[in-house]
Amino acid sequence: MDPARSLGPAQIEALAQLAVSTVLLGGIYALIAVGLTLIFGIMRVVNFAHGEFLMLGMYLAFWAFVLWSVDPYFMLVIAIPLFFLVGLLTYALVMRGVISASHNVQIFTTVGLSTALQNLALVLWTGDFRVVRPWHSTVVLRVAGTAFNLSQVVAFLIAVGLTLALFAFMKWTRTGRIMRATAQDREAATLMGIDTDRVYRFTWAIGIAVVGAAGALVAPLYAIYPTAGLQFVLLAYVVVVLGGLGDMVGAMLGSLIVATVEVVGSYFFGAAWKEVLYFLLFIAVLVFRPAGLFGQRGAETLGA
Amino acid sequence: MRGRAAALTVAVLILIALSSGSGAQSLSGEYKIGVLEPLTGPLAGEGKRHLEGFEIVRDLINERGGVMGKRLVFAVADAPDPTAAASEANRLITREGVKIITGTFSSRLCGAASEAAARHNVVYWETSCVDPRFNKRNLKTVYRTEIDATGFGWYNVEFIAKHLAPRFNMKPNQLKIAFLSEDSSYGQGVTESARQRAKQEFGMQEVGLEYYNFQTINDFTPVIVKFKQANPDVVHHIGYSNDAPLFWRQSREQNFLFKALVHAGATGYGSADFGTALGNDGNGVFALLEPGPGFRLEALKPEGQKIERDFREAVQKKTGSYPRGGHQLAGAGLWLLKLVLDKAQSDDPEKFQKAVLALDLPVGSMINGWGVKFSETGQNANDRVQHYMLQWQNGQLVTVWPEEFTTNRAKWIPLGAWDQRK
Question: What pTM was computed for the model?
Answer without folding.
Answer: 0.85
